[in-house]
Automatic annotation (TrEMBL), chain A:
The gene is pdhB. Pfam families: Transket_pyr, Transketolase_C. InterPro entries: THDP-binding, Transketo_C/PFOR_II, Transketolase-like_Pyr-bd, Transketolase_C. Residues 5-194 form the Transketolase-like pyrimidine-binding domain. Keywords: Oxidoreductase, Pyruvate. SUPFAM superfamilies: Thiamin diphosphate-binding fold (THDP-binding), TK C-terminal domain-like. This is Pyruvate dehydrogenase subunit beta. Gene3D superfamilies: 3.40.50.920, 3.40.50.970. One of its GO terms (molecular function) is oxidoreductase activity. Transmembrane segments: none annotated. SMART domains: Transket_pyr. It comes from Oceanobacillus indicireducens.
Automatic annotation (TrEMBL), chain B:
Keywords: Oxidoreductase, Thiamine pyrophosphate. It comes from Oceanobacillus indicireducens. One of its GO terms (biological process) is pyruvate decarboxylation to acetyl-CoA. This is Acetoin:2,6-dichlorophenolindophenol oxidoreductase subunit alpha. Its cofactor is thiamine diphosphate. Residues 336-356 are annotated as: Disordered. One of its GO terms (molecular function) is pyruvate dehydrogenase (acetyl-transferring) activity.
Length: 343, 356
């Protein structure tokens, strides 16, 4: 059965079902339950925050503090511990509250977890899913709003997932937890309140498969995370000019689905990538590079990347709005490559 | 800890007059009862193990100098008593995390000499199929969660393994080896704190060899000892003579027993000396090759144990000599195995990035 659910509920439900299914799935992070050792909460077996955004609410009362571990504010320590838990047979799901805190936790991912299997001759397995929150648009300013999935996705041994819809969020979360590798799961904080149909039952969506969210013939728009909605908006607008846009939600940033993107570009001959990350060395530039290499002869114009500017995320609401890629910016770039179609 | 301990003088020129004082701060050696807990067989195993480490390292040095071993090599020779004394209490079910100076820990935890030697030669038969090298020797089946190229890289992994043991209600313990340099990484503090609040079955074994690369411990540490930092994390902190394997064995035994019983973590500082450079090729101009520092450097833990074991009637000199010969032979065979092993196939470059 399927019901309309919030993006945040979809994630909570996925975590719940993964924990139900496998007792080795253990959550850890800062305030993911909250209120540890607080007497009045303990007496009633209640959590407090259930995560800073309430995503993990209710899981501690159901599974206990052994499986929903509130950590001290020690990102390097507990992310390293997650690697140790994974390599000794558990299936930890650590939460890095904001992806901007990655500096503290990075060695566990870059130096340890991602490399163990390779360095140890294939004899180590590191099944862990790092949940983290990203994205601008919540006036959270420069240290709580970045989008670093591309940066993390450039590390060999790391898979990176960025869902845009509640349905994808649940299915990809369950895949991530089942996966025997280090998966980084990015949740856009501005999507938590969005709604969509989500089946009640356990289901998975393969990591590494993009989704064609709208079919089209003239222009391919590849999006990451909430940029899907910018892509869909642009497609609606261009439809009025008889330009048919195919919108591909990448869903997985590493490894990204080259076949789906290349096939689409071979059909349309035009490509725009919308990526909320800063503009250099990001997923968009990687896609542009691969497509120009693999499908150069099919291109009818330059590949356009619409990204955030090369600045930190500003606080002032008007500036933050300017920072995030939007339909106007995409349409300006599109105009250059679809001119002949409109004529 | 005593408040009487004096800081080392800032001037390196004064080290010769006070190095011994630094070594001797609150340091434990084997008690009279230690020997009662040492059987003759255990003593032989431990001596053989120390010889294996020593011979492994001497060969690593030799073949690195000969150009057969590539990369960086950080030698453990001189610190054998620590790895041996601690790991003598562990089984394959227990876990260790090691360091960039990790050959000794891996040998002591049962790492296969041939697989280890082949690994540092970069051969396909190595424990890591030649893709890890000296700083990344691991054998998960033996509970060796890896040497580590990151100073302090083992703290988190060890803490996580201990969380696993506690969650599984297992009596397995974890030993986290680390140097005096790693004690100044933030993650040291994070993990000691977490291990203590959660009463994890883990022993943090510090090897204070007085040098973090080219920087002395008496310069880089605000506390006189590493052990006294345990106070901040509400766990026992013990300082033991790291060249006295019987003392290390005794002290580690107490801490491991405590961990197995669910009584929480312990910090042990083993006072030793880094007889070799940070890496092979290091000219070590920062060391005092005279006075008390030299005297401490020259204390050989193997000789210390030989005397102790003979004196206490655990083994005879002939038996020890025989073990030494056996060890030399075992390591020679490991070298031969490594030399004769093939390089990894080219396709190995792409393998084992991801698990299925």
């Amino acid at each position: 059965m399927s019901k309309e659910k919030l993006f945040m509920q979809a994630i909570n439900e996925a975590l719940d079902q993964a924990m139900e299914k496998d007792e080795d799935v253990i959550l850890l992070g800062e305030d993911i339950a909250g209120g540890a050792n607080v007497k009045h909460l303990e007496e009633k077996n209640e959590d407090s925050w259930g995560g800073t955004m309430g995503i993990t609410r209710g899981l501690m009362p159901k599974y206990g503090r052994e499986r929903v571990i509130d950590t001290p504010i020690s990102e390097m320590g507990y992310m390293g511990a997650a690697v140790g838990m994974a390599v000794t047979g558990l299936r930890p799901v650590p939460e890095l509250m904001f992806n901007d805190f990655i500096g503290f936790a990075l060695d566990s991912i870059l130096g340890q977890g991602s490399k163990m299997r390779y360095m140890f001759g294939g004899k180590a397995t590191v099944p862990m899913t790092v949940r983290t929150m990203h994205g601008a648009g919540a006036s959270a300013a420069a240290q709580h709003s970045g989008s670093y999935y591309g940066m993390l996705g450039s590390i060999p041994g790391v898979k990176v997932v960025v869902p845009a819809t509640p349905y994808d969020a649940k299915g990809l979360m369950l895949s991530a937890i089942e996966d025997n590798n280090l998966v980084m799961f990015f949740e856009d904080k501005t999507l938590y309140g969005t709604k969509g149909d989500v089946p009640d039952e356990y289901y998975t969506i393969p990591i590494g498969e993009a989704a064609i969210k709208r079919g089209g013939e003239d222009l391919t728009i590849v999006t990451i995370g909430k940029m899907l909605f910018v892509g869909l908006e642009v497609a609606e607008i261009l439809e009025k000019d008889n330009v048919s846009v195919e919108v591909i939600d990448l869903r997985t940033v590493a490894p990204w689905d080259q076949e789906t993107v290349i096939e689409s570009v071979k059909k349309t001959g035009r490509l725009i990538v919308i990526d909320e990350a800063n503009p250099h060395n990001n997923t968009a530039t990687d896609i542009a590079s691969v497509v120009s290499d693999r499908a150069f002869d099919y291109l009818d114009g330059p590949i356009k990347c619409v990204c955030a500017p090369n600045t930190p995320v500003p606080f002032a609401a008007n500036l933050e709005k300017l920072y995030i890629p939007n339909a106007d910016k995409v349409l300006r770039e599109a105009a250059e490559i679809i001119d002949d179609l409109k004529a | 800890m005593s408040g009487k301990a004096q800081r080392m003088p800032e001037s390196v020129s004064k080290v010769e007059t006070s190095f011994k004082e630094l070594v001797d701060l609150e340091v434990r050696t084997a008690t009279d009862t230690a020997v009662k807990n040492l059987t003759s067989d255990k003593a032989k195993d431990m001596y053989k193990n120390m010889e294996d480490i020593r011979n492994f390292e001497e060969n690593a040095k030799r073949y690195f100098a000969a150009g057969e071993i590539p990369g960086f090599v950080h030698l453990y020779a001189g610190e054998e008593a620590i790895a041996t004394g601690v790991c003598a209490h562990l089984t394959d079910e227990d876990y260790i995390t090691s360091t960039h100076r990790g050959h000794g820990h891996c040998v002591a935890k049962g790492g296969d000499l041939k697989g280890m030697m082949a690994e540092i030669f970069g051969k396909a038969t190595g424990l890591g199929k030649g893709k890890g090298g000296s700083m990344h020797i691991a054998d998960i089946d033996k509970g060796i969660l890896g040497a580590n190229g990151m100073v302090g890289g083992g703290f988190g992994i060890a803490t996580g393994a201990a969380i696993r043991n506690k969650y599984k209600k297992s009596d397995r313990v974890v030993v986290c080896f680390f140097g005096d340099g790693a004690a100044n990484e933030g993650v040291f503090h994070e993990c000691l704190n977490m291990a203590s609040i959660w009463k994890l079955p883990i022993v943090f074994v510090n090897e204070n060899n007085f040098f973090a690369e080219a920087t002395p411990q008496w310069y880089s540490s605000a506390s006189n000892t590493i052990a006294e930092r345990a106070v901040a994390y509400n766990m026992p902190g013990v300082r033991v003579n790291g060249k006295d394997v019987a003392g290390v064995y005794e002290t580690a035994g107490e801490a491991i027993e405590r961990a197995r019983k669910g009584e929480g973590p312990t910090l042990i500082e083993c006072v030793t000396y880094r007889n070799h450079g940070h890496f092979e090729g290091d000219e070590q101009t920062y060391k005092a090759d005279f006075g008390e520092e030299k005297e401490w450097a020259d204390v050989d833990p193997l000789n210390v144990f030989r005397e102790y074991a003979i004196e206490n009637g655990l083994v005879t000199e002939e038996e020890l000599d025989k073990l030494r010969e056996e060890s030399i032979k075992d390591v020679e065979e490991a070298v031969k195995f490594a030399q004769e092993s093939p390089e990894p196939e080219p396709e190995a470059l792409y393998e084992d990035v991801f698990a299925d």
